[in-house]
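Try it yourself: sequence plus S-adenosyl-L-homocysteine, in.
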Amino acid sequence: MTEPFRATVLTLFPDAFPGTLGASLIGRALKQQKWQLETLDIRTFSHHKHRSVDDTPAGGGPGMVLRPDVAAMAIDSVERFDRPLIHLSPRGKPLTQSRVRELAAGSGMVLFCSRFEGLDQRVIDSRQMEEISIGDYVLAGGEIAAQVLIEACVRLIPGVLGAQQSIVEESFEGNLLEYPQYTRPRVWEDNEVPEVLLSGDHGRIARWRRDAATSLTKRVRPDLVDKNAKPE
Ligand code: SAH
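Structure, out:
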């Protein structure tokens, strides 16, 4: 058997893991070793007084910056094999489902979570870290971003979620958002489930879903349909 997908997380807050990754199907798959999670506490790699990991920014300004020597010791301690080394950062490339698919198909990833004002640029350059952002907003640390990235990848690993079909049909596959979903009861607060979905006519249902997905995507995310357009 091949080795399971392995996520190694470098963090100042190992207690934040597995966090939400311990819940539900993703957490069950972790217990069943369908994927592996390992955390390393960056602070244990500091040889400085009081195990300090940060210092004031060169050039002045508020906050603290993670020291390159401590970060590099932590990074270099990891057996990476062929796994990409990723720095979670609002200055990174925005995460997409297509990058998630590539990462999920690999053997895992090594994730570095920064805190404070971020990480000294020299480590990012010298260790050739790939920088990934989970969106255009600023978090207090990379831990939640790492969990977002891990969860997005792990749910694509065969056998982790129940039905593989649900993965094929959902948002961003074919650059469309998913069609709206309904379940029982058929009438709820005077609102009915669209009649076509109860018709049993698979051709009509498929057409209805494709049209609904297309019009939703055009309205909410025109940028997915037309690469030059911007979202509202
Ligand atoms: N001063 C930095 C922000 C630091 S936020 C700047 O303006 O770019 C502290 C840390 O939280 C970051 O170094 C990163 O590891 C994490 N983080 C914050 N926002 C993030 C985002 N949108 N995506 C991924 N990681 C993020």
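One thing you can check immediately is this: Helices lie at 24-31, 68-76, 97-104, 121-126, 143-154, 165-168, 202-220, 222-225.
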